[in-house]
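Allow me, if you will, to draw on your knowledge of protein folds for a short while. The matter concerns a single protein, recorded as an amino acid sequence and a row of backbone structure tokens. Could you please explain, in whatever detail you think fit, how the structure tokens follow from the sequence? I remain grateful for any guidance, and I place the record below:

…
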Amino acid sequence: MAKKIVVVRSSEDDRHHHKRLSSDGRVKVRKLAEKLAPHVDGSSAAVFSSAVIRASESAAVIADTLKIGFMATHLLLPKHLRDGGGISSGEAFLEVWKLIDGPDVVILVVHCEFTEEFPPFVGKQLNVAMYGQVIPEGTACIIDCVEKTMVHVK
């Protein structure tokens, strides 16, 4: 299991799934990635993102900044886009949990609903109370799976 899970909300309004990341959005994501660098430095790390264009472009910027690889996956899509709604959030979270078994640090670039729902799921896996929260666009929360804590990074 990953030692740290970083949940990043895409840097721009994630209701407009078809639009590309703006140049301002790229700057914001790069600055956030620079703030995340100390949490990744010297660790094995991977970035996973939603397959929606803005999230995957945000993930590419983060991966490039931190010099790590990334993969887009349908598991991180918003509910209404995920396989026509056929896979529940719980099922998707269990599959994501399998993805994060390997690297020391896993960065997930996701949408608003995921920032609310995934931390409580992780807390349940770690047997500790964690509360979801809507994090502002272009920010992140870091879940330390060893210390069993969660902090917000702006």
